[in-house]
Queue: 3 jobs
Job 1
Amino acid sequence: MAIDIQNSLQEACNALRENKVILIPCEMGWALGCDAQSSIAVEKMLSILPEDDQEAPTLLVDDDRKLNRYFKDIPEVAWDLLETAMKPLTFVFENSMNIRQELQGEKNSIGIRISKHTYISALGKKFGKAIAAIELYEVSKEERSKIQDHVDFTHPGEADDFEMDGIDVIGIRPNGQVTVY
């Protein structure tokens, strides 16, 4: 059965706008997602998995122009890295803004990735804002089924339609100091 991607994107976008939590494919397999600015949605997303099982939340955006909406003074080295990147980069920046504090780490830091995944990129364009995501690395179908009971929308397809040779995670401090994780 073919998946109606446009319908799936519309349903996911509606769920995000209604402060709901979604389960979507991403570069790393599957991810829980919600509106990064909604306290209701963030609280619900963070409650789905035990804290010990959670990866640090990441913001997913579709376009590098959205970086300035969520971070003050992005160091020039980040723009240079984006121009030369061969695969998706997750930047960890300090001094985040316009996102829920529950998502932020030390010094108001959080990771953000300009997604290369077709579905996430299209959803980001349609939604117009960052999606807060907790990536579920290599989740089994059985585990995904259990998680689906706690979310408001699940993408109807599989996550294996996007092959990526990993993601680089790079921390950049306000002074331009770079750390590769």
Job 2
Amino acid sequence: MKLSDTRGHLFSIAVAAGLAACTHAAAKPDAAVEQAPKQEETKAVEAAKPVTPAEAFHAQGQAELDKALEQLRNVSVFFEFDSATLTKDAQEKLTNVAGILTAHPELKLRVEGNADERGSEQYNLALGQRRADAAKKYLDNLGVKREQITSISFGSEKPKATGHDEEAWKQNRRDDVNAQKDPTPTPAPAPAQK
């Protein structure tokens, strides 16, 4: 037997073995295709589960909290030149903020005082702090818990408007309200003893 005949036979055997292996191997569907029906089944089972009253209460409470946070987003109160006295408009906005905070004691609020660019850095920081403290005191007088409110001054470091005219300065003489959920949960009250 010649070498070329041997190679030909070996090649034929290898091809035949390869074909035999391919025809006997069962086709496997994609893993993603297999998982899709399982995920749909899981969702269907979860949707069919009855919601407990506690879960429904929690979901409703979370929805209310999300709505309260949304109402507190982008709230700013504005001040006159070189003043930390709350305007009538500022008092109305802060009254709405107080209503939300008293209804949701799990919310924390940071009042951020700001000033326009006129004045020294030190003066503007002090003015921004007086403005933030004025809003904090007003909220405290409306019944918001003191531990819910903090105040900080950014002076002229966080301008809302970047111009150098009265319109820009009006936008920068402000307090911004920054609300968030308290990361430390309030402990539940202890049950009354008989």
Job 3
Amino acid sequence: MKRKPVFLVAAAIASVGILLNLVVPAIVADDKTDSPSPGVSGKGKHAGKGSGAGMKAKMPEFEPLAVSKEEAAEPVSDSRIYVPMPAEQKAILREQMRGFLVTLAQIQGLMADGKLDEAAKIAETTMGRSERGQHKGKGPGLYMPIPMRTLAWDMHEKASEFAETASQGDVLESYRSLQKLQTSCVSCHFSYSTR
């Protein structure tokens, strides 16, 4: 099995950090209002009619990367292990992953505000041991290979460990524990794909 260079792992971790610190807090901030998020169409809690100005105001300006037609047509190399699963379980998994991203952003915000007890509570209830097994034998875990399932269970363990550490009030140890939690996420996403 060909190993990825260390810098790719570092880039993946940095990318998760950038997403969590730049994109997700804006989404979370929109979720705190009773009004729909601007610029989002469709059904559900995020349905809206706006121009997207609210989200754009929160996002930093970046120049898009120039990509030629030839580059855009090239197949993307993905060395992750493909894990097939039925559409229902795939949808459950994607919903959970999006929820976990939002939770990680909320945890970081709470930690920045010195609210370690709240960060601990949200970590345990949305990502920790108490969250796993909700689907009573019908969830995506049924279709995961054992190593992938092990990584998923490890993420739940790391979330609970973070919750325990954060509830003790030690900021530095809490950040160390959060880093272990995020690394467990990166490990799985770096190794497996469902599409």
